[in-house]
Design the sequence.
DNA sequence: ATACGTTTCAAACGTTTGTTTTGGGGGCTT
DNA sequence: AAGCCCCCAAAACAAACGTTTGAAACGTAT
């Protein structure tokens, strides 16, 4: 990243700053000055700040979704072998596709996702649904196959519960690990946290339905 | 809320606008004009925008935590009866304390919590830990008693997983219910969503530990 | 070498932001 | 009635924001 082009330097810097402080709290001046480019470069190359935000997400979501799509296609060819654990592992593997080199990019990715959801500016929600809604539906359909005892609608809700737990955890991974280290004198690796999260999610998705 | 004092009118309006659009995206002018008060009133009564944000949280968290503290004290007198379900129900009951009249205030409360967590870089994190860390530790200790097979550190992580699922779900309650309605032609009440969430959480907290 | 499209740069634009100032009413006490 | 204190209102403030501008610098093909 030492002497990359202007566009990439902007994207590299923007995704870090956005993840650290949020979208509205990160000014174009902060991005461009830290990236070592001119202030006008953002509007020249991307058109606007909104477009820059979307470009940052595209750089994450395109490899993530294409990888996920491919893996889901593989699974569809052998429907009997589809389990919750395999589907969740598929997500994990897809997330690896976004970390080109640095493993910390996965954390940034989820941190941004959390921001996108909570700040939910109108344009981002539309952007997600239009560009990546397809893959998400595909995943949802497969998950419904994996847990035939759970009605599709219940699967829908539980996926969102799981999504919340995941985004929340991975977006706050470092602070949480620090608390764990100080309270229990145990240093967990991100991978170990991930394992714990996955068993929690599997347990939740398979849980007994509430008495209606 | 028709002709309340200036301070309350500001707080009432601010909490709604903050929940809708976030902290940075909500200007004091938007708050004061909608509240029907003068722009300078915020700085006069609260001192700054940061102080207003904290005041909004205090109005939610003080009744919530004092109610929660009281209920936890009751539970401590009879440790044998403490189960996950009872603890989660305790949280639910405490949340009811924040909705003075309007039931939708619970959603606002969690929406704000989600915002606070995702944007939490400086003053809010400190504010939470200093003012409400005590009650949280107390809850954590009780939960560890309720699931003796799960080591305390695992409880710690699972509570945060559950916290993420809860905040994520309740902060996006209305959009999620809309999707559910359009995709499954089923209209769930917030209470029904809550029931589903609770069984998901109980299943996750009780799930089998990952093979280490 | 000249001309051309692309990229970079410093500077300025017009808005909007949070905050401060100033001054003028009520309602109290003395 | 005078003084005091709390509250409100209009205006102005400085700073920061995203965006635009016009010219300079660049590489490249003619």
Sequence:
């Amino acid at each position: 990243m030492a002497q990359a082009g202007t566009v990439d330097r902007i994207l590299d810097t923007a995704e870090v700053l956005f993840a650290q402080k949020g979208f509205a709290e990160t000014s174009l001046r902060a991005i461009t000055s830290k990236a070592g480019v001119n202030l006008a470069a953002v509007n020249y190359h991307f058109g606007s700040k909104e477009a820059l935000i979307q470009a940052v997400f595209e750089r994450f979501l395109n490899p993530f979704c294409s990888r996920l799509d491919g893996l889901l296609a593989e699974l569809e060819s052998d429907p009997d072998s589809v389990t919750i654990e395999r589907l969740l592992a598929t997500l994990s593997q897809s997330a690896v596709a976004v970390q080109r080199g640095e493993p910390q990019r996965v954390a940034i990715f989820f941190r941004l996702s959390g921001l996108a959801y909570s700040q939910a500016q109108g344009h981002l929600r539309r952007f997600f649904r239009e560009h990546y809604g397809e893959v998400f539906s595909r995943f949802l359909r497969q998950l419904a196959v994996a847990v035939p005892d759970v009605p599709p609608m219940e699967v829908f809700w539980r996926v969102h519960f799981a999504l919340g737990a995941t985004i929340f955890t991975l977006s706050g991974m470092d602070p949480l690990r620090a608390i764990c280290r100080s309270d229990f004198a145990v240093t967990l690796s991100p991978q170990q946290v991930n394992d714990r999260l996955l068993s929690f999610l599997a347990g939740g998705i398979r849980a007994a339905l509430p008495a209606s």
